[in-house]
From TrEMBL, chains A, B:
CDD domains: CAP_ED (cd00038). Signal peptide: none annotated. Residues 22-134 form the Cyclic nucleotide-binding domain. It holds the Pfam family cNMP_binding. This is Crp/Fnr family transcriptional regulator.
DNA sequence: CAAAAAAATTAATCTAGTTTAAGAAATACT
DNA sequence: AGTATTTCTTAAACTAGATTAATTTTTTTG
C-alpha cells in the first residue's frame, strides 16, 4: 500500500469524499479502498468522454465545469437529456450496467474536471464497501425522484413556466450554457425560448 | 423463531422472492429475515394505500392487479405519473425516504394484492441483509433509466407515436385500464386519444 | 334488468409552440 | 483587428393537440 494513503488523501478526490460524507460515513480504510479505484480526469471543452455506439464504462462525478448528455434524433437533431454540474454523477446507466452500446454522447460544455470510476471497479467496491452501494442507492433514488418530477412538470405546466422555474432554480446555470442547449433540455425550440425571453425577464 | 420458517416459506411472498432472485441470491436465513418484515395486503378496487398529505411509509410490491400514482393539479385535474402492475414497486420515494408529506395518491385501479414494507423495516433490512440494498439499488437504476427514456420520448416523438409505442409494448395493459387514465399518463387529453384511436388501430 | 354513473366518441373552434427564413450579435480564430 | 463561425432574435405562416360542448356507449349497482 502506498504510504501517502496513511497520512493524507489526494486532495483532488476531496469533493467526492465530501459528497459521499453527506450520506454515509466512511472510515479511513474504506476511503483508501475507494480512492484506489478512482481516476481524476480533466476534460477540455467540447471533448467527449462518451460517444454514441460505445459502451459506457464509466460513471463520472463532476468536480468542476459542466457536461451534457444528448443523442441525435432520427431527424438529425440534438436532444439533450441531462446536464451534469458540480457534485452530479453523469453516465448512461443503461449502457453502464448492461454493457450495451450507448445511444448517447457525453460532452463537456465547458472546461471540466471529473472523477471517473469504471464499471468493474465499482462492482468490486460494492462488495468491499457496502456503504458505497448505499450511497449510490440514495443517489439513484434522488435521480429517480427528480426525473419523475420532470415528467410531472412537462405534463402539468407550460413551457414558459418550466423555463421560468428553471431559471429561478438554477440561475447560475442559465449564464453558463448556450440558450440553444437550454431549449433542447427543456424540449422547446430556440425560437420559442427567444420569444419567451423577449417578453420580460421575470 | 417460528417453525414454519425452517421448512417452507409462506407462499404469498413467493412472487417477491422470485423477483429478488433475478438480481441477487438470498440464502435461507436472509429470506427469513426479509419475510419477517413484510406484510401482505389485499387492496380493493378504488382503495387508497396512500392519500395526498400523508407521509408515505410503505413501499409496495404489486403481486397482482394494478395501482396508479397520481396527483391533483392546481387546475383540479388528475395527473397520473406511474402505473404499477405485477412485479413493480410503487411508492412516493420522496415522501418515503424523507418522511415528508406526499403530494400523491396511490390508488388501486383493479382488485389488487401487494406486499408492503415499511420505511423502518426496510432501513433495518438494508443493514442486516446488504443484498437487499443491492436489489433496490438495481431496481432504482432501472426505474431511473425508464424515467429518463420517458422524458426522451416526450421530447422526441409525437403523442400519437407515443401512444402506439405504448400499445405495442404493453398490449395487455391497454385492455386493463380505462382510456382516460392512459391519456393522463401519456400527457394527452382523452379527446385527442380518442381521435388517434379512431384513425386506425395501427 | 332498468336507472344511474362512468367512460368514450365526435366535431367545431382555438392556441401554445413549431417551422421557415432572414438578419443581427456575439465569440472564436489567424 | 478583421473574418468566419457560432449563437440569438424577430416575425409570418402553420399544426399538433387542447378546449368546449353535446351525444353515445359501456359499466355498475340497487
Amino acid at each position: 500500500m502506498k504510504n501517502y494513503l496513511n497520512t493524507s488523501l489526494p486532495e483532488q478526490f476531496q469533493p467526492l469524499l465530501d459528497h459521499i460524507g453527506r450520506f454515509v460515513d466512511l472510515d479511513m480504510s474504506e476511503k483508501e479502498l475507494l480512492l484506489g479505484r478512482l481516476s481524476f480526469k480533466k476534460v477540455k471543452k467540447k471533448e467527449y468522454p462518451l460517444s454514441e455506439g460505445q459502451i459506457c464504462n464509466y460513471n463520472y462525478f463532476v468536480v468542476k465545469g459542466c457536461l451534457r448528455v444528448y443523442l441525435i434524433t432520427n431527424s438529425g437533431l440534438e436532444q439533450i437529456t441531462q446536464f451534469g454540474i458540480e457534485n452530479w454523477w453523469i453516465t448512461d446507466f443503461d449502457s453502464f450496467e448492461n454493457q450495451t452500446s450507448s445511444a448517447f454522447f457525453i460532452q463537456a460544455v465547458e472546461e471540466s474536471e471529473v472523477i471517473a470510476i469504471d464499471k468493474n471497479a465499482l462492482e468490486n467496491l460494492y462488495n468491499e464497501v457496502p456503504k458505497v452501494e448505499r450511497y449510490f442507492r440514495i443517489i439513484l433514488q434522488k435521480n429517480f425522484v427528480a426525473a419523475q418530477r420532470r415528467i410531472l412538470w412537462i405534463h402539468t405546466i407550460s413551457s414558459e413556466q418550466r423555463y421560468r422555474n428553471f431559471v429561478e432554480q438554477f440561475p447560475a446555470f442559465v449564464q453558463r450554457v448556450p440558450q440553444y442547449m437550454l431549449a433542447s433540455y427543456l424540449g422547446i425550440t430556440l425560437e420559442f425560448l427567444s420569444k419567451i425571453r423577449a417578453k420580460k425577464n421575470l
